[in-house]
Amino acid sequence: MADKLHFSLVSPERELYAGDVDHVVVPGSEGEFGVLANHAPFMTTIRPGPLRILNDGGERRIFVNGGFADVTPAGLTVLAEDAVDLEDLDAAKLDQDLKNCREDVGDAKDEAQKRDAEARLRRLEAIRAAMR
Questions:
Q1: Where are the beta strands (DSSP E) in 29-131?
Q2: How many domains does the chain have?
């Protein structure tokens, strides 16, 4: 049996994943990187994008919106600012949310409302792109 990597994904709301896996691909701020068991320790920031968990021939994709990745001898921990399991999303609902958010940007009454709507729109667009 090959060595397994202990992986934990935590968002401010909850722990989304904890367990031993074969491989994790993380959207690092300098580009994607893969982590296997016995990887050299390091810490880095992550950018919005799909995090891929590969285990026993299967793949699970979770959108992460910023945060930190910490590789230690004990494994990989990702502390995400925001995380959404892509399996749980309804593409039609997400498309409607995108449409509504674009309207919110256009309907914004002041710069603060516009900035907030644009930030929500960027997040939804990144999630939609991660679903492809």
A1: 31-35, 42-46, 49-55, 58-64, 67-72, 75-80, 83-85
A2: 2
